Amino acid sequence: MMNFNISHANYHSFILTGIPGMPDKNPWMAFALGFLYTLTLLGNGTILAVTKVDQSLHEPMYYFLSILALTDVSLSMSTLPTMLSIFWFNAPEIAFDACITQMFFIHGFGVVESGVLVSMAFDRFVAIRNPLRYVSILTQGVIAKIGITVLARAVCVVFPVPFLIKRLPFCHSNVLSHPYCLHQDAMRLACASTRINSLYGLIIVIFTLGWDALIILFSHVLILQTVLGIASRAERFKTLNTCLSHICAVLLFYVPLIGVTMVHRFGKHLSPVVHTLMANIYLLLPPVMNPIVYSVKTKQIRRRIIQVFQRKV
């Protein structure tokens, strides 16, 4: 499990943590997690299937929604293997390279989701600001290029993270705080300076997630400005209602993200249960809730889902 030399032990694996201090609760957590993952797959799978089958949903808004659903599924699948190994099979050990790989995908898909939310904000801005040219501006080719750009940005931004972690020696402990691998969690176990890791992590947060949040905020300010210029009160409400689902998706992603970042940086005195709870909410809540929000708030998707169930009945 570890190699010893004269100066220190350098671990070749990490131990993941289920519920800190409450290992007897892990079996109960297993069923809750199984339900959440099932709900994630069913919800996002339904969004993808409905969008593909219904020709009336072959519009830019629903293409971006499909990309969001794919991202949510991918993010959930990144955490699923270690979640199952801990809560279902009581096997908390993970190899160092496997941990780094999982770390790359979790952080990568997190950046992708942020980029997709920016793309969806741009979609709503074009639809409301210039409705007559909406479809001609956001063609399938343009949407594909946006998707590739979002993915490429995430890969480039997160690519250095595994190398920054791999260069560090780990000798104090190999027990992580969560049931999956995060950069900030593994970094704190190193017995060498982590200043470069901390600085790069801060740069990622500011210039990707932080910048994305500002763009989304600015786009909605412009949308609100446009909506207030509409004479009819009913039309203003109808137009704003088309943005409500996106606003909910943004809040579901950024509020837990800010929470887990604050807890990791300034909440060292807090209970380990708080750290675990915040990290789990950040990774599990958006993939579960996004399909529900869009199904409830988007009339076209809701109608199509109801039609599918009526046929089965």
TrEMBL record:
The chain crosses the membrane at residues 28-50, 62-88, 100-122, 142-165, 199-223, 244-267, 273-294. It is found in: Cell membrane; Membrane. GO terms for cellular component: plasma membrane. One of its GO terms (molecular function) is G protein-coupled receptor activity. It is a multi-pass membrane protein. Pfam families: 7tm_4. CDD domains: 7tmA_OR51-like. One of its GO terms (biological process) is cellular response to lipid. Residues 43-294 form the G-protein coupled receptors family 1 profile domain. Keywords: Cell membrane, G-protein coupled receptor, Membrane, Olfaction, Receptor, Sensory transduction, Transducer, Transmembrane, Transmembrane helix. This is Olfactory receptor. It comes from Loxodonta africana (African elephant).
